[in-house]
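Journal club side-thread
Mid-discussion, someone asked how the predicted structure for our own chain would compare to the paper's figures. Pasting it here so we can look after the session.
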Amino acid sequence: MDTIKKVEYKNQHYIPKSYFKLFSDDGKTILIYDKEKKEFYKNASIKDQGSEDYFYGKNTEFEKSVSKLEDEIILILRKLNSNGFQLITTEDYRTILTYLCFQYKRTRHDKDLTNQLSSKLHRQLIRETRSKIDTGNVLTDEIIERIKVDDPHLFIYSMARSLYSGVLLSDLQRCILVNKTNRRFVFSDSPAVLHNSYFCNNKNTGVGFQSPGLQLLFPISNEKVLLLYDKEYYSINPENETINVTNKKDVSLINLLQMLYCSKLVFFSKNSEINRLQKLRKDYDKLFVRPKINETKYKFNNREGINEFIKLFNTLYNFKLNLSFIKEKTLIKKEEFFRNKDICDFYEKVVMENLDGKFSPPKDSYEVKVVPKTK
């Protein structure tokens, strides 16, 4: 019986099939652009997209546990597509914010980033203890640098934290961008995009749910994108929380964000978008280099007192999202780590009460290996 369960949930989705159906014209197929190979694929089955074998690890319970959230969000997104925010309840909006955080964290890129962090911490621990464990001096610095860790448990823990992170977005303004052009919005394998036009030229700045100047864009159909933004830095004047997008360049720039921040694949529903995506890639080709990963050390209080932890993050793409309906405010303001400290403190308290000390890794939850030398 256990074997049947594992087979059933072996192919694990990080983008729900029901989300693809919001964009597919026939409900079965989609077009794909591969950013790495610069190739296009037509008539791809949506059931084969947005998934990997054991994406969350061999413990198949996690995907089953989030299926309820996926079912709820699709119903809410359909309401959002049909009637905007008019019929969206407070509870609906809370679910939207939770899902945006969760979707942002469950991507191939974030999984790789988590494994990089775990690898770094393991290498650091080995260096600090090798005098006690390596009596034969086998663990040279060169070998330690080649140690890589695949840690699905840490990745699941990161996603579990994201399920409590919706409150971190609760202070942002919201609106729906309605595409009134003859072009279509696209989406990617990392559809919840966090960007920051205001601080994008700061090489030491990352982006998070509480970043000042945050812009979050999430496509919900070929014609609509949900936009959340920091009103302290951007001026937008939506009517009934809606902006009609009539400028084709605006649509192209919003699509460009999906192309830049995707892990690998961009999805779309119309053949006519192929030439437009090719042009975007050509015009902005120099941008298509993933920003380097930076490291920041934070101190925080927990039950054991003051502790320090390391956070790895991507620096921002140096790209001004110059949309015709957004104006950046002129501010003389020092950049901070967060927009609202009270919200951050509340979030940490909730996480501590619900996760910390209660999320124990199973035995053999990760794999440590030394990768071969590169020639």
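Post-session note: The longest helix spans residues 108-133.
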